[in-house]
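Possible regression after last week's pipeline update?

I re-ran a chain I had predicted before the update to compare outputs. Posting the input and the new output here so someone can diff against the archived version. Not blocking, just want to make sure nothing changed silently.
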Amino acid sequence: MWSLPAPLRDMILGGAYEISTTVAVMRGGELVAANIPVSSCPVTATITTSDGRGATLVTSRDVTDMGLLDPLSDSVIISSGIRGLVSVPLFTGRVDAHAETETGEVAVALLSKRQEIARDSFETPFAVRPGATFIDEVTRIIHDFDSTIAVDASQIPVTHAHTFTDMVPTGLAWETDRAQALNDLTDAIHVLWLPDRTGGIALQTHHFVHTHDPVPVLTIRDGVDGVIVKMNQVKSRQDVFNAITLVVERTDNTLPIRVTQRDSDPGSPTLWGGPFGKQNRVIKINTPINASDASELAEHILDASLALTRTWRIEIPPNPLIDPGDVVAVWYRGEPTLQLVESISYPNRARASTVLATRQLLASTFELDS
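New output (post-update):
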């Protein structure tokens, strides 16, 4: 959740002020337009796809005819907040392309920092350094592209301290694909690399099942004095797998590592071979990990698969503070649940709703006062 002093945060969450959106244009690090007129500028953020954060905007021909939003030089900062009091960044990225619409306006596609990094292939093969950690090499690959990009690992909890100490296997190298190198290294330590709001890269772990109950950043309620505008939930077994077989292909011509993790909890509704039955998923990867790490990764994927049993779509009043990966407490029709925010659609008009796609966390002892 985006951090603000409590008085400003409460003003936004209280709903008494109208939330507005501004679009600024930067060129060569200099501000060239503080707030261009746009008819729409939807921003989405997610932890479920590789892009992580995306945005488009629609503006008039007059803006582009003035030379603004040039794909060869310009970047855009989209912000939301209370005009004159507080501004919260939602997206920072380059202008990627223009396309004229049937109405005579111009649709402008924007490029996130992750997408920008992925488009830049290595000029020479990239080899890991002996004794370096996974985080060190992830940061080095990003800074090889642009040394000014902030790489934030503060969202990785202390319970995953090994993430900062595990060393990469020797001899690893990638010929051209920078994004593949980053994917391989972050997958090995169960971390996501995602574009943040301000043009940096955030590293964060998956949250699907916690060994402890996380502290929610926000409580969302229905009913009198509640903020839920609309709520839909889906229960489905289609994407629920109670066994995961992970096959790790080797690059040294040796036999692949093959491990299987099953839901063996007698009290679980998806117990392998229980009333749910059996649904196994086979996943093949090329990530450079050993048998122990492969077993841990298979268990993580299994946890994620089991957590798909309940997903939600929640509409709330404009809220530019919440982020994908946040855990929220939801009280709906008398039932309290902990839910992980997987995706967000931020509104680009006053009074429009923020839309959250969430899934219920399998927490152990969660209680919420009524």
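Follow-up from reviewer: compared with the archived run. The chain has a mean pLDDT of 87. Marking as no regression found.
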